[in-house]
Design brief:
single chain, about 375 residues, alpha/beta, three-stranded mixed β-sheet, elongated, binds adenosine-5'-triphosphate, binds magnesium ion
Amino acid sequence: MAVKDDVLAALGKVSSPEGAPLPATGKLSEIVATDGKVFFSITVDAAAVKLWESVRERAEAATRAVPGVKSVMVALTAERAGAPASSSAAGGKAAGPPPRPHRTGAAAAPSPAGIPGVAAIIAVASGKGGVGKSTTAVNLALALRDLGLKVGILDADIYGPSLPKLLAIREKPQTIGGTRLKPIERHGMAVMSIGFLIEEETPMIWRGPMVMSALTQMLREVEWGALDVMVVDMPPGTGDAQLTMAQQVPLKGAVIVSTPQDLALIDARRGIAMFRRVNVPVLGIVENMSTFICPQCGTRTDIFGHGGARAEAERLGVPFLGEVPLDIAIRENSDAGTPVVATAPDGPHAKCYRDIAARVRDGLQTASRPAPKIVIEA
Ligand SMILES: Nc1ncnc2c1ncn2[C@@H]1O[C@H](COP(=O)(O)OP(=O)(O)OP(=O)(O)O)[C@@H](O)[C@H]1O
Ligand SMILES: [Mg+2]
């Protein structure tokens, strides 16, 4: 808490292009400070980005000089829809505009800049919470790794990050050169989560621009290195975070996770519609928590029904990627940070995930991103 106050006091000596103290401009986000790692964003009008770049630099320098601060990340976030990202965004300094959806008619969106060295980025998503996105994302990433690909995994769930738990990661990422972060290496994958930077109990009260800048920083200010695939574990829903990902990241495709029953499928449909609206190809649907096979007697019970996702995939004309059974071993391993694909690579579950991964890999080879054009209905 003290560091946060000291940072705020230091920022009081940094003035805006108009000469006002930075905290008085209303452009400063909440300041997040944990273990000497500080980050915040400055959200300005896109037309004024150039004027504010030096403010960002001075804010960063002032923060770094605060006793107890070990590393600083400050994002300059532009607030305007429809304009191309400022050239400095590609250099990782500015977060680029988080375009608000146009409410009237169609608009050409900026073509999102790629992440240097990352060949393909895929989102694992669903409209609904708790259907197993994170579990699927982790095991899918491991299965892609088993297919010989160099894989990274990014936790885009800013509100409820899961990767620290699912991969049993407690260490903090190191910084490189003061500002860029090194992802954590786990099971041969590069891993990044906002959960590495904040304590588990910290309430996640993020303001809109903060969500945007945290995401863009985790994408652009992390040394991902050369990756064949980056798997992004999405938060539930079709809100700001999804739109940011879809608009600011050149997603090669989306994998939709659903349980077999109608209720979850309705949300999966919403997720699919959202990715289609922002021209991200849907690589297919995974039916998670499909058939349950009793470990005692071997009886098969379709707790949430069975086959709903396959039928829905057919109806929507998207590939069906496969089924993952509802199994205590998946849950226990997932929650213990020992994902089944890593700990039981010869078991039946690992095979399920590898089959899904092979279909995803094949889908990636054919998926091509159509010309960027965003049409969001009023
Ligand atoms: N196939 C499965 N069999 C048994 N348990 C599973 C399976 N898939 C996921 N689970 C369990 O279900 C719970 C929710 O899974 P998970 O956290 O992956 O869902 P999520 O969709 O990412 O949730 P959220 O929307 O909160 O991000 C976890 O306890 C997980 O271990
Ligand atoms: Mg999750």
